[in-house]
Specification:
alpha+beta; Lambda Exonuclease, Chain A; OB fold (Dihydrolipoamide Acetyltransferase, E2P); 10 strands; 33% helix; globular
């Protein structure tokens, strides 16, 4: 990748082409499309002027990476435990199974590498990738405790037949019936619905069928809906479940506790099937707009990784009057025009869009590490700036308060055309 391509990610631009509708629908894709079709489209569109891969380069989020590390470790360990016929960590065979993987510390170290691997060659991730790796490495003892706590509440079933790992997205002609046992990362596919989903752990015995999903964050109501969707997909997956056996136990495993969800009955599954057909049709119709509709809101935009590209977000972000709490010591997004250089690592500017500061107010931007040159007259969109306010007696002309915006490790600067 050329140096110019590495820099081009910091310049605001539209996609080379808007994406087509997804071939397969999933819980996460449906949730993304219902929340904001524009966000989904901007995230997965092609940006040939930025890099060769599909989608806009994502920015690593430490909390998401931490969850990925724990999730990957659970996947690896449950798979090897099931392969060894271990039903819990308390059995002697569990020691041998874990030893095969090198022990908890080695497993977690490998999972850190796996979690960061997708960001290699990502120009947006490059400035913080080493820092992210260091922070994750310091959390290894905590990851180990979290993984052990989650595993301690799991009862696995010995396998008496073939096990199936997750497949690539798409129809796999070699997918076959699952037999009794615990199966990790099972991809459920229903071509008639164009839906798929990956069940973290699916356990089959003569007495029950359990689908378990691991969640490393806080409890959310939509996770229950996700698990019911997995129950529906399992009932309709004619390759893995030719008899149409229903799941009778659904469990969400959080760090501190398990939550059991009532398994849907046959009539409830039919209602659920109708619901996801209807909701899928609605979101696919929304994608026919060019560009797709934007739905800015605090909940939808605060963690959006492509909000710097979204014109509707920045129009929504403008506030003529500050509302609520003072922006002092808050992190916010700003669109500003640079007016002059203030010092070796600071610039004077005028606010053009902000949810915390009046449009037209002067601002002092402090930033030490730059990925492209700054000049007076440039317009910038800046994400995650810390705002501080000087007392009025220290303010400049027009008796306006001096707003100081300081860039930190999570700050990103993007140059507008």
């Amino acid at each position: 990748m050329s140096g110019q391509n590495n820099k081009s990610v910091w310049y605001i631009s539209q996609p080379s082409a808007w994406p087509k509708a997804p071939r397969w629908m999933s819980f996460s894709t449906l949730s993304e499309l219902e929340a904001c079709p524009r966000r989904w489209a901007l995230s997965v569109a092609d940006y040939l002027h930025v890099w060769e891969k599909r989608g806009y380069p994502p920015r690593p989020q430490i909390t998401a990476l931490e969850g990925a590390v724990v999730h990957l470790a659970l996947q690896k360990i449950t798979h090897v435990l099931a392969k060894h016929g271990c039903t819990s960590l308390r059995e002697a065979c569990a020691f041998s199974a874990l030893k095969e993987l090198g022990g908890y510390t080695a497993i977690i170290a490998e999972c850190i590498d796996c979690a960061l691997h997708p960001y290699e060659g990502n120009p947006r991730a490059a400035p913080i990738l080493d820092t992210a790796r260091q922070r994750l490495s310091t959390r290894v003892p905590d990851f180990r405790i979290r993984v052990q706590k989650l595993l301690s509440r799991i009862s696995l079933a010995s396998s008496n037949g073939a096990s199936l790992r997750a497949t690539a997205h798409g129809i796999n002609e070699y997918r076959h019936q699952l037999f009794h046992g615990s199966h990790a990362e099972v991809e459920l596919q229903v071509p008639e619905l164009d839906w798929h989903g990956v069940a973290d752990l699916l356990t089959l015995t003569s007495g029950f069928c359990e689908i378990r999903d691991f969640k490393t964050g806080i409890s959310k109501p939509q996770y229950e809906f996700q698990l019911r969707i997995y129950a529906l997909l399992w009932s309709l997956d004619r390759n893995l479940n030719p008899s149409g056996r229903l799941a009778d136990k659904l469990v969400i495993s959080y760090d501190e506790n398990d939550v059991e969800i009532p398994a849907p009955r046959e009539d409830e599954l039919r209602f659920l099937e109708d619901e996801i057909r209807r909701r899928t049709a609605v979101v696919l119709a929304d994608l026919r707009l060019n560009p797709p509709d934007a739905r800015p809101s605090q909940e939808s935009c605060v963690y959006c990784s492509v909000r710097q590209l979204c014109e509707d977000y920045w129009k929504w972000n403008v506030r003529e009057e500050k509302g609520g709490e003072s922006p002092e010591n808050q992190f916010t997004d700003l669109q500003i025009r640079l007016s002059a250089r203030h010092g070796p690592a600071s610039w004077d500017g005028i606010v053009e869009a902000s949810s915390a500061i009046k449009v037209g107010w002067p601002i002092l931007l402090r930033i030490s590490k730059l990925l492209f040159e700054l000049h007076p007259g440039q317009r910038l969109r800046i994400l995650n700036l810390k705002i501080s306010i000087y007392e009025k007696e220290q303010s400049g002309e027009n008796n306006l308060p001096q707003i100081v915006a300081t860039a930190g490790i999570n700050t990103e600067l993007f140059l507008m055309p």
